[in-house]
Amino acid sequence: MAAMLGLEEDDEEEEKETLTLDQYDMRVLQADAKQTALQTFIVGLIHTKWGAVIPMVVSVVVALINKPDNTLVRIYLRGETGSADLKRPFKKKSAFADMVAGAKTKKKKKEKGKGGKKARRKGAKEN
Question: What pLDDT score was predicted for residue 3?
Answer without folding.
Answer: 62
